[in-house]
Design goal:
heterotetramer; A: 304 residues; alpha/beta; TIM Barrel; eight-stranded parallel beta barrel; four-stranded antiparallel beta sheet; 16 strands; globular; B: 258 residues; Elongation Factor Tu (Ef-tu), domain 3; 2 domains; seven-stranded antiparallel beta sheet; seven-stranded mixed beta sheet; binds flavin-adenine dinucleotide; binds flavin mononucleotide; binds FE2/S2 (inorganic) cluster
């Protein structure tokens, strides 16, 4: 039974990865999940300099989901390389570094810094960050700036390049095509939907940042629709993200055209959600008498 | 640190007051590994609403039995009340950094509301250390119904318990912090868990008296594992502490009290 | 205690309306809800000609939400006027007619047809429909076409005009401003988010239409964020919609700047959700010692 | 038509087979208003997941007690199994159009799987009409464990019951529809509830024999009230029927069987 998948130049033992920001730097889950059984570990988004993140409250539960406004807190690339990455070398599991920046230059500098580092299998570019030079509009909501970031990172690294799309757009296929055209080896989606919650007792926003990113099972239908649209629009591999909690969920994304998936919020309430899905996919193949997970990918049947 | 995710069998569900319950689990692994002040993350059922696990202090560890003391404040805790003997609960833990156990004695424990929960586990540990006579334990709550049973259990352990209630129905009529000043000069460490205003007051009292103080904090938590970075509290030195990993027990002077 | 609100030229006894498509033509709920206690009844979307709608399956439950692809089934404007509307005359509750079309002309013709009819308090224009002449792109995702529909309807009717926005856009404030500029008396939002679900056993979409509209508590955070953004961007009244189930939910939208709200999916599982919220808002005012619901509107406090 | 939304008290929860349960409610209003073939919409708890009410046929009405017969197939029905005596359930109903009660007799009832549920209510009603000896009732299921208890209850009412199981463990080894041809010439109406393939077959058999046939359909339902327009089935005359309002019981020739 073959669970392995190729994400462009990258080969994974199975299609199940951890979504950035929901699995720390891997170590946080080491006692609760068998890290060696994952398709890949995508670590918390890294910037050039350390970032303290937003003031609290940063998270709030919503109906079948949660809002977060962590504010991209991270230890910065240097501490990541000295304090976090080496511990992950003990596993054969590919490590994918999620990168973020305030400007095209920052993305490019980060990519260049990570290019020759051992033990990094690929970069995932988070383009949902505000473009500080352009009044804070997210890079990932304008095809041109998304392409610009992609091109700059592409030029700065020879690592496989995954560009992670924001769902807060009118037409996801425009974004997918823009970053494909700019050199992305693969596309992952979706990042969080922009949302908000109010504490009616204090009449204050429940997040200090007022708005935050909605994730979890609540967003799965939107994510699945966008993955299906994006997979039909580009020829590079698509990685599905958004509310994936069970094997069933993972299968939906694979059938919609994703060749791999990421588990995010589910890690928080089900720390072994990823390995449970790996087992579940294997069981599904067996039960369906299939030999390879690639037979599931894009197998959606639409009556016409 | 050993952490586990397992389903544990409910041994007992006691209703201590209108909205206060105690859930006892047959949880040998947690019992063996837990330290006072640590917590667990509890999944409140199979439904995706509520979605996230709920954090609860480890209230008692007796043999292989782990008890949680909880107040019904929302839908997650309401679901927990429906559990009965034989049901199973999915728990992750023990998690976080607990109270210092081997600081210089004597020390005073101060608990308010559900902040009393971890103090029972801590008190039993103190007894085992047998560091001589301990100062009274100070416990506060809104009213007698929320406090009597718990206070009695500390008394049964052999502690002197001073109580305070907002309505004066048990012990001192007022804040539990008002009982502390008389005792502060006799202790070398204060360990406190309760609402933020209470802990802030205790921290100030200790600061003035130059007595070290440890506080056990609460924040919203998504993971309890140090992964989501959601559970921050502002640190005195600038930046943030992550309550689930750096805490929940922190030295009062690490915290930027606002 | 004053629960009444003004939606432009329209005065409602309270801010609680029924969302189009979730309350039939009112009569369906008559035995379970006191229709006379509603702020307004917004009926199922009406087109010029009757429409059969999509083949089944049309609905599927998702995590804290549901997907629907009803396909705008409706009896058409003439049968609506003869068979459905007269029954509603017995109540003093304002009736708002939700209208939809394939083309700008169809919207305008509908608005003209309804202009002089007795017992219609306002029109709500559903611009989430596909623009047949422009390859099926929804009117409500392009500021220009949204404005075009609004202008055409505005010219055809003297009734108060509410334009209902689609959330499937990058920047909701652009849409809000476009329809305000084109003559809308008020804006309502959000309509459903585009989503999808797959039956992994049959490998088929769970909806015959493949994609459908996501509604219910799951979308509330997104809806609230968009209402807050839209309310800050326009000066016409904003009506909040999306996942509203409880009094708390309604208060969140009011605090975010909505001057009224619509209850949608909640009607399905809680047929008296609307009147329960009316009671809840009154109780809230009393408990907070407020005299008017207008004191709640836009009362969100943001620390700066 | 009278419809109510009320919370009713659970009187009894019986487990009839591995995954088949019967819930009895003290529901005087529904009991007074219900007609055989009608259904209710049940809220399966306070959680928003599952979100929508679940439709269930009215299985029995005895005095003021209304019973539902259900099979655990997903999360909503799983939640229902946790209800016990004294708990309350939020129910909307009775809803929809039921079976014709005063057509020309004799008639034959055919039930498959959980489609048997509404037939008990219908059978009792037939008895009250006292229209002379009735033809056998035909009941099918996968296996004996799912059928025996229910079949016995129809027998106790005084009906002759012919059973069929997929595995041959009770009655005819095969489809319940295979029992119908022998009886069709004796009846003037067939009333059937079960899986679609079974109802399609019965509809064809009746069509060939020129016997009127009523079927009780199932679709996904959001409201059960005719408001969401989600519960469509294609109609023979073109367009769609709405199962919750036009049905759930329809004349077999109104349906476009696919
Ligand atoms: C480390 C730690 C230990 C805890 N130990 C205990 C304990 O021993 N006993 C006990 O009863 N409670 C304890 N709590 C608090 C407990 O986790 C919350 O009461 C519980 O999560 C509420 O869940 P709910 O679904 O019932 O309420 P919800 O419906 O989630 O919320 C109800 C209300 O409580 C507030 N709230 C929810 N969670 C928290 C939180 N973590 N901090 C502050 N406010 C919150 C919400 O904002 C809301 O106003 C602890 C919390 C932490 C972080
Ligand atoms: C008018 C009517 C009367 C019914 N009467 C009974 C009855 O008396 N006893 C009984 O056991 N069941 C009955 N049903 C079916 C019952 O409503 C479903 O089994 C139930 O809603 C499933 O809920 P769940 O949450 O357990 O399953 P879910 O988790 O919602 O779904 C589990 C599986 O069942 C399928 N399913 C869910 N609902 C339906 C449905 N309405 N129709 C077809 N497939 C569905 C889903 O697609 C899924 O594959 C009736 C349905 C209708 C429409
Ligand atoms: C607490 C939290 C932190 C996140 N941090 C990042 C991040 O640093 N970089 C990034 O690209 N995505 C980040 N995400 C988005 C997730 O990787 C994922 O795209 C999103 O949560 C949707 O998936 P889910 O519904 O499975 O959680 C974060 C999400 C959460 C909930
Ligand atoms: C079954 C269904 C049918 C709907 N039909 C219409 C419609 O005809 N016209 C319209 O403008 N909106 C329609 N809507 C959208 C709702 O009015 C509302 O905007 C949306 O469902 C979000 O609100 P909610 O989450 O409270 O349901 C429909 C929604 C549902 C669920
Ligand atoms: S709760 Fe997730 S990092 Fe602390
Ligand atoms: S279930 Fe809503 S119309 Fe039938």
């Amino acid at each position: 039974m073959d669970l392995s998948v190729n994400i462009g130049p990258l080969r994974l033992q199975n299609p199940v990865m951890t979504a950035s920001g929901t699995f720390g730097y891997g170590r946080e889950f080491a006692e609760l999940t068998d890290l060696s059984r994952l398709g890949a570990i995508i670590v918390k988004g890294i910037s050039l300099a350390p970032r303290p993140g937003n003031p609290p409250p940063r998270i709030i539960e919503t109906a079948c989901g949660m809002l977060n406004a962590i504010g991209l807190e991270n230890v910065g690339v240097e501490r990541f390389l000295t304090e976090k990455l080496p511990w992950l070398h003990q596993f054969a599991t590919p490590v994918i570094v999620n990168i973020l920046g305030d400007s095209v230059e920052e993305y490019a500098a980060l990519a260049a810094r990570l290019n020759d580092v051992e033990g990094i299998a690929a970069l995932e570019v988070n383009i949902s960050c505000p473009n500080v030079k352009r009044g804070g509009v997210a890079f990932g909501t304008v095809p041109e700036t998304a392409a610009e970031v992609t091109r700059a990172v592409r030029a700065a690294t020879s690592l496989p390049l995954i560009v992670k799309l924001s769902p807060n757009v009118t037409d996801i296929t425009l974004m997918a095509r823009a970053v494909e055209g700019a050199g992305a080896d693969a596309i992952s989606l979706i990042n969080t939907l922009l949302g908000m919650a109010i504490d009616t007792r204090s009449r204050k926003p429940r997040l200090a940042n007022v708005v935050g990113g909605l994730s979890g099972p609540a967003i799965k239908p939107v994510a699945l629709r966008m993955v299906w649209q994006a997979a039909a629009a580009v020829s590079v591999p698509v990685i599905g993200i958004g509310g994936i909690t069970t094997t069933e969920d993972a299968l939906e994304f694979l059938m919609a055209g994703a060749c791999a998936i990421q588990v995010g919020t589910a890690n928080f309430f089900q720390p072994n959600a990823t390995t449970t899905i790996v087992d579940g996919l294997a069981a599904y193949l067996e039960q369906q008498s299939l030999t390879s997970i690639s037979q599931v990918v894009n197998s959606l049947r639409i009556d016409t | 640190m050993a952490e586990f995710q397992e389903k544990y069998t409910v041994l007992r569900q006691e209703q201590l007051a209108d909205d206060i319950f105690r859930l006892s689990l047959d949880a040998p692994k947690i019992a063996a590994a837990a330290q006072p002040g640590q917590f667990v993350m509890v999944r409140t059922g199979e439904s995706l609403d509520p979605l996230l696990r709920r954090p609860f202090s480890i209230h008692k560890v007796i043999g292989e039995t782990v008890a949680l003391l909880y107040k019904v404040v929302g839908k997650g805790t309401r679901v927990l009340t429906s559990l009965g003997p034989g049901d199973s609960v999915d728990v992750v833990g023990p998690l976080g950094r607990g109270f210092d156990l081997d600081g210089p004695g004597p020390r005073c424990l101060v608990g308010g509301g559900m902040g009393i929960a971890p103090l029972y586990f801590l008190a039993r540990q103190i007894l085992q250390q047998d560091t001589g006579p301990n100062p009274p334990i100070l416990l506060g709550a809104r009213t007698r119904a929320e406090l009597q049973v718990l206070a009695d259990e500390f008394t049964e352990l052999g502690f002197v318990v001073l109580t305070a209630t907002d309505d004066g129905s048990l012990g001192h009529h007022g804040l539990v912090t008002e009982l502390l000043d008389d005792i502060l000069h006799r202790v070398r460490l204060v360990q406190v868990c309760g609402p933020v205003p209470m802990m802030r007051t205790v921290a100030r009292q200790c600061d003035r008296a130059r007595v070290p103080c440890q506080v056990s904090l609460e924040t919203h938590m998504a993971c309890g594992l140090g992964a989501c970075l959601g559970c921050t509290c502002p640190a005195r030195e600038g930046g943030y502490k992550h309550v689930c990993k750096d805490g929940p027990v922190l030295s009062a002077d690490e915290v930027a009290w606002i």
